[in-house]
Structure formats: structure tokens, C-alpha cells
Amino acid sequence: MSKINPLASSLIDDYINSRATFAKEILALFRQLIHKANQDIVEDWKWNIPVFHKNEMVCGFAAFQKHVSLTFFNGANMSDKHLLFSGDCSAKHTRNIKFTVVSEIDKNQLLDYFKEAFLISGSGNQKSENLDIKIHELLQKALNKNELAKKNFENMAYTYRKEYTLQISCAKQEATKIKRLARIISNLEQNIKMHEQ
Question: Dihedral, CA atoms, 194, 30, 36, 7, nearest 10 degrees?
């Protein structure tokens, strides 16, 4: 672990207290949930924002004019099981969640994310491929009929396979699932990741 700023906790206090009211509420809740998720978390201060460690940097947060951003430094290896990660992040490893009001936050869902992030951090360099992914039945059947698409899908990193699986499972209507499936198989035949389409 890199050197921890000995003034981190008081700097975080000042940071939270100096933000706009909407952000102050969100940041205070983040901090509370982080420590609830794991009592061994170490507070730090880097890049003028709060950062939290467990063996390595796990997460950090920052307030902006109209939103607050929560960053998971190894978020690409997380399952995103509640689909909270924003879709505007093209970073290789980090993933973000953005909130504008504290009432948007489901505490139990966010606790799940913190616990998973700390678990990954505490297990050494756990690779995303070690995480389970349940492939939607429609996608699995289509892959079984298309050797090239299946090969490319299986060679993709966990995160990319998960994104394609969620595209099917998150669709509410059968027609939407079928439409998305056709596009996914076409992409996979060309070895295109979802964010590259």
C-alpha cells in the first residue's frame, strides 16, 4: 500500500462539509456505507479527493456542480449486478456511479458494490474471469449455433461478456430481446465489444 496521508480523515471531513447541501448528504452517506461494508478500510487523500484503501486503492468520490461521482478503481472486475455503473466510462479499469440527490441511493445496493470491491481487493489480484456469469438462455442458444460468435464471446474478458449478457436479460419485451440478440451475434462474429459498436 502506498503511503497514507496522515491528515486524510480531517481533510475528508473538511471536503464533505464544504460541498453544496445535495453533495454533502451523498458524500456523507458514501463514507458511512464504505465503513459499514468493511471496518478495515483506510481513509486516504489523493488528487484532492477522498480515497479508500484495502490492500490497494478501492474507491474514491468527488463532488461536482450538479452531481457526485463514486469511482471504483477496479470496477471493470466487478459484476455491476444492480446496473448502477454509468455508461459514459471508457476507462480500462475504473467504473463510476453518479448521483444527483441522496434519495436516488439504494443503500443495500451500494453496500453490495462496496463489499464486492473490498472482496476483490482483499483477494490479491483476482481476475474478472474468476467471477461467475449467467448467460441468458437466448444468447446461449444463439452462441451454440454460431461457432465463430461463440469462440469470440468466450475469448472476451468477463466485463465484455457480462455487458452482452445484460443486454438480453435487461430487455423487458421478447421482441426487444430478439432484436438485440441479432445485433449481438453480428458484433460477436466481427469480434466487436459492445462499447465499440
Answer: 120
- Please give the model's pTM, rounded to 2 decimal places: 0.62
Q: Dump pLDDT digits (tens) for 55-69.
A: 789 999 999 999 999
- The per-residue pLDDT for range 96-109, each reduced to its tens digit, is 999 999 999 999 99
Q: Collapsing DSSP states into helix, strand and coil, what is residue 157?
A: coil
* 62 and 153 part of one domain: no
Contacts of 8 (CB under 8 A, 6+ apart): 43, 44, 45, 50
**What domain range includes position 184?**
132-192
116 within domain boundaries: yes
- Grid cell at residue 81: 449486478
Domain count, the chain: 2
